[in-house]
Design a protein that fits this description.
The chain is α/β, with parallel strands linked by helices. It is built from 16 helices and 16 strands. The longest helix is centred in the middle third of the chain and has 18 residues. The radius of gyration is 21 Å and the shape is globular. It binds zinc ion (ZN). Zinc ion (ZN) binds next to loops. Zinc ion binds next to loops.
Length: 407
């Protein structure tokens, strides 16, 4: 196998789930086409790889896997800055709804936006994530809540995947809120299961389904119906669970083999044991915690004790986490939730890959895995979570292609 790129004299942080803090100093990584052909100490690099490919002396710089944002809602119309201002002046959610704010204002703006306008707004958000080294991105629908707009959002995700040099994981989140056309939540869930999900599956517009399971949205019976249908259609399962209350949704999702439950502030010990048994990832979303000034932090020590993989994501959305900086989220996961800088790094690489079901293909630096990797302007991997977005990758490789920087 010929080398295409050989990066030597690097500090390689492979970020494997078994020991994310393992670092190989004075190391070489060899790329061959879209795969990692070899990595290890400089002195052990096979002679054949020294003969071909483009060579780069990293001068000690740190190399990590490409970053993965495994939870975002970044295809939407409009913005909610006025609502933010109202909240700072003391308005509660009820006041905001009365003024026409809240999620349904985003639904209206998304329904009326053209597909091109949605694409352009989302493209700019994707660009800022790519600049930080995001090479894989999950995007949920959920601001349409009707057939035309849910499909429109998922088509925008498809268009992004055809025009951006990174990978996308589309997720159907029609069960995000009750649309104005329905008064009965069960009738709406039945419509999603019987009408929308088969169309989405047939057009291969989503790889997973998700539901917002909270008393203000949908309950366990709704979630179970959706999960059963997802299994019938061979779609993976994700669930917004235990953000505002201990609803039992996480344990239910674990029983259905969910890839992830997301938020998890109110997780109980019982639920954590079930997540551990099922291998379900908990996706921590510190941006929403911060923006909503929540008080309840997720039980990180218990998750650590039970070896539940913890991912970290932006939750990028107009209502509760309008940012597009995964690096900031890593910092907040450390400061607010008590993750170590290496846990935060694992949260946006190997564990985020598992939250998408793609851990056998990407998320770590290992021979045979996809060559998604970053070269940072620092020798210390802990700088990435520490620097609050100030340190960005100098070289970005996706599937072995150099997207940013030059050798
Ligand atoms: Zn979310």
């Amino acid at each position: 196998m010929d080398a295409t790129f050989v990066i030597s004299n690097a500090t390689i942080a492979p970020i494997c789930a078994s020991d994310p803090s393992d670092v190989i100093p004075s190391a070489t990584i060899v790329l061959s086409e879209d795969k990692i052909a070899w990595l290890g100490a400089d002195k052990d690099c096979p002679e054949s790889y020294r003969q071909n490919g483009q060579h780069h002396d990293a001068k000690g710089a740190c190399v990590t896997p490409g970053l993965i944002d495994c939870h975002s809602h970044l295809v939407y119309g409009g913005e909610r800055a006025h609502e933010f201002a109202m909240r700072l002046e003391g308005a509660d959610y009820g006041d905001i709804l009365k003024q026409g704010g809240g999620i349904l204002s985003t639904v209206n703006a998304t329904r009326t936006a053209s597909e091109d306008a949605l694409y352009l707004a989302a493209r700019a958000r994707v660009q800022s994530l790519m600049d930080e080294g995001v090479t894989t991105l999950e995007i949920k629908s959920g601001y349409g809540l009707d057939e035309d707009t849910e499909l429109k959002i998922l088509r925008v995700v498809r268009q992004l995947s055809q025009t951006c040099p990174i990978e996308f994981h589309p997720t159907l989140l029609a069960a995000h809120a009750l649309p104005p056309e329905f008064t009965d939540k069960t009738a709406y869930i039945d419509w999603i299961c019987q009408t929308l999900m088969p169309k989405v599956a047939e057009q291969e517009l989503a790889a997973a389904v998700d539901i917002f399971c909270e008393p203000i949205a949908f309950d366990l019976a709704h979630a179970e119906k959706l999960f059963k249908k997802a299994q019938d259609l061979n779609l993976a399962i994700k669930c917004h669970a235990e953000q505002l209350s201990a609803s039992g949704a996480a344990a239910l999702a674990a029983r259905y083999g969910a890839l992830s439950i997301d938020h998890g502030e109110y997780l109980t010990v019982d639920a954590i044991e079930q997540l551990a048994d099922a291998g379900t990832v908990v996706v921590l979303l510190p941006g929403a915690y911060y923006f909503l000034r929540e008080q309840q932090t997720p039980p990180v020590s218990l998750l650590r004790e039970h070896q539940v993989p913890m991912a970290v994501a932006t939750d990028s959305n107009p209502g509760t986490s309008p940012g597009t900086s995964l690096l900031w989220m890593m910092n907040m996961a450390c400061v607010f939730f008590g993750l170590t800088p290496f846990e935060a790094l694992a949260g946006v690489t190997c564990h985020a890959a598992r939250a998408l079901g793609w851990q056998e293909r990407l998320g770590s630096l290992k021979q045979g895995l996809q060559a998604d990797l970053l070269v940072w302007p620092t020798e210390n991997p802990e700088m990435i979570a520490y620097a609050m977005g100030q340190v960005k990758p100098e070289l970005i490789f996706k599937k072995g292609k150099l997207l940013k920087g030059s050798l």
